[in-house]
Amino acid sequence: MKNKVVTFGEILLRFSKPDCLRLSQGNRFIGKYGGSEANVAVSLAMQGDDVEYVTAVPGNDVGRAARQSLQEYGVSTRHVLTCGRRLGTYYFEEAAALRNSRVAYDREGSSFSELQPGMIDWEEALKDAAVLHCSGITCAISQGAADATFEGVETAKKMGITISCDINYRKNLWKYPGANPHETLDRLMQYSDIIFGDAIEWYVVSGHPQVPFTALSSDYQMDLPAYADWLDALHRQFPQCRKILIGIRNQVSSNHHTLTGVLLADGTMYHTRILDIPQIIDPMGVGDAFAAAMIHSHLHHPDDPQFFLDYSLAAAALKGTIPGDFNLSTEDEILEALNTP
What is the DSSP string of 213-225? Predict the structure, then answer.
């Protein structure tokens, strides 16, 4: 049985200041590699899956280092293109107490933004693949990157490959002429068999109001009938999608979050416990950990929707305890967290 996963997106170099300093303070930056789809690739590799990452990097030391950061965790980079002049970056200011985290992107003119249709041999890249994973971010970078995304998605559909989508709506990225996030994301989701998004993203793409989630602890009572109605409305909007997963989070403070999720699979809603996480180390990549565990569960436990949801929640919760973008949790560690009362 095929079990290779191909992920497609832009790998980034992340810069942040130590000790919760603001970007305007101090004179030292800490650099780490990340980016949504790269995070998914590494997380899947850490769980033992066969993963191929498709992206574009410059042919310089920074591009080579980005490749090596993926190879270090067992991600294949055979179909990484070398082109362009620079790697995209982002600057992350950590949250502290009442101060929220902040992100500033510097991606214009990056190697990935210069992709065009025809540059990627999608049939070769998707050979022996079970899943293609992409996200709304890939379509937000440039028209060429969006066109390359749909070229990959359409090839995967013709090849009978499952398409996994993370909505990943980032309103400050859609800047190229003619960019239409709602129309583009709707089109991408119409192709997708499995879709993940947090509650805000599902509201943005669907127009259906969010169900309030104000949990301060794990004993919060969710309005499950309201979530069932919401999921039914989403399925009517995206009827081809086999699994719809909503990640739900309340940020009690900068380092105290409550986290849960709901899943619609084969017309049935599943819910899971609420995790009270009082010590978040790094919130970046939590949604990507959710998405990666979702794909892993789809490959290895396709007929157990409750496990699918419980496992994905546990993986996301663990990511919040790990510095950097990558979720470096193994399958055994996620299972241990899943089974911890």
Answer: ---SSTT----HH
